[in-house]
Amino acid sequence: MTTSTAAAPAAGALPVTSERLKKKRTRHVKERVIEALLFFAAFISVFTTAAILYVLISESVLFFQQVSIFDFLTDTQWTPLFADPHYGILPLLSGTITVAGVGLLLAIPVGTIIAVYLSEFASVGVREVVKPLLEMLAGVPTIVFGYFALLFVTPLLQRIFPDLPGFNMLSAGLVVGIMIVPYISSLAEDAMRAVPMSLREGSYAMGATRFQTAIKVVAPAATSGIAAACILGVSRAVGETMVVAVAAGMQPKFTFNPMEGAGTITAYIVQVALGDLPHGELAYQTIFAAGLTLVLLTLVFNILGYWLRRKFRETY
After folding, report:
1. pTM for this prediction
2. HEC assignment per residue over the chain
3. Which pLDDT band holds residue 134 (cuts at 50, 70, 90)?
């Protein structure tokens, strides 16, 4: 009787153990599936980047077999569609840098000021209203910004500068700056809010005001995040297409004067890609060489941003 009574719980424990093993196996399978999905997502992003680079490099090699790299980098004329073709990338590069520079001169200070206000001075209610509105601004289609620059900003600037042409890099750059303000302000504000409260409390304990704390303590501590936000803004400004195509014109001109119209790399790519040139012609292959130049330019800015993050990053 004693033996059978003792054996009964052991026999009854088998189904419980079996259920636990089934749950453990099911959980293991689920984890494997999740890991496979995450790996597939990462692989897709890497594969897409590699495929883009492969297309650009392979087509650019065919282009540079017929055009000297030296002429491509030093010639100040870009007329691949004319009877007397020239393949100097400098006019497109100058237009791209000028538009991006004007935009950054507006976006970096305005975005940083907004970030400081939202992080250190705004109340919770104000922050919950203003930040979503800024992020909504980032979702406005770029073609809308383009016509805003052409039909509103340009006529407004022409009242100040009567000789300003209808297509100019100044209005395009200003609107590009308005476009990238949400990116800079949102990321910079997140970086500032990540600064530990103990640093603020220590500053207040030393007698500093809220403004002094924000400028001399919080902002320097968040330098790496602010720099990353600015680099993202640079990449966004350099890659902008529709605003410059609509407001700056698409006539390549080697100039850094924002009061003039000029073409950019992205605007030229759109112009040729939507044209009637057959694939394989030298004039068509210019878009791949221009695209590779744009990718390398963006890569330089990203490397600079990575270096700044490593140099100024603070660990708490």
Report:
1. 0.81
2. CHHHHHHHHHHHHHHHHHHHHHHHHHHHHHHHHHHHHHHHHHHHHHHHHHHHHHHHHHHHHHHHCCCCHHHHHHCCCECCCCCCCCECCHHHHHHHHHHHHHHHHHHHHHHHHHHHHHHHHCCHHHHHHHHHHHHHHCCCCHHHHHHHHHHHHHHHHHHHCCCCCCCCHHHHHHHHHHHHHHHHHHHHHHHHHCCCHHHHHHHHHCCCCHHHHHHHHHHHHCHHHHHHHHHHHHHHHHCCCHHHHHHCCCCCCCCCCCCCCCCCHHHHHHHHHCCCCCCCCHHHHHHHHHHHHHHHHHHHHHHHHHHHHHHHCCCC
3. confident
